[in-house]
Design goal:
The chain has 105 residues and is mostly helical. 52% of the residues lie in helices and 4% in strands. The chain has helices at residues 2-10, 14-21, 23-34, 38-47, 63-78, and strands at residues 91-92, 97-98. Keywords: Aminoacyl-tRNA synthetase, ATP-binding, Ligase, Nucleotide-binding, Protein biosynthesis.
Length: 105
């Protein structure tokens, strides 16, 4: 995840050191990190002929995206389609969060 890369960049590790560094500055560094390779991504996207609006990209850290996800979750809940279940997920003990399949090395 982005957070692990930022920890490495800052020379810190784990929740305690992140808190010492400052949560808000750490979050800001993570947000900046997301856009580190934006130029290369634009070039790659164009070179493979992938048609996307790079001036209004799909960015999960922006509030409109986050709000849309909460809206959808609320709608799903209201319709009785949200349920609690169990499944095996990759987990990062350092980040204390589950990982997506593309984050597992």
């Amino acid at each position: 995840p982005v957070e692990l890369g930022v920890e490495k960049q800052l020379g810190i590790s784990g929740k305690h050191e992140i808190e010492e560094y400052g949560i808000e500055p750490f979050i800001q560094k993570c947000k900046e990190s997301v856009f580190t390779y934006e130029k290369q991504w634009r070039e790659f996207t164009e070179s493979i002929g992938y048609w996307v609006d790079m001036d209004d990209p799909y960015v999960t850290l922006k509030n409109p995206y986050i709000e849309s996800v909460w809206h959808i979750l609320g709608t799903i809940h209201e319709k009785g389609l949200l349920y609690k279940g169990h499944r095996v997920s990759p987990y990062c003990p350092s980040c204390q969060t589950s990982l997506s399949s593309h984050e597992v090395a």
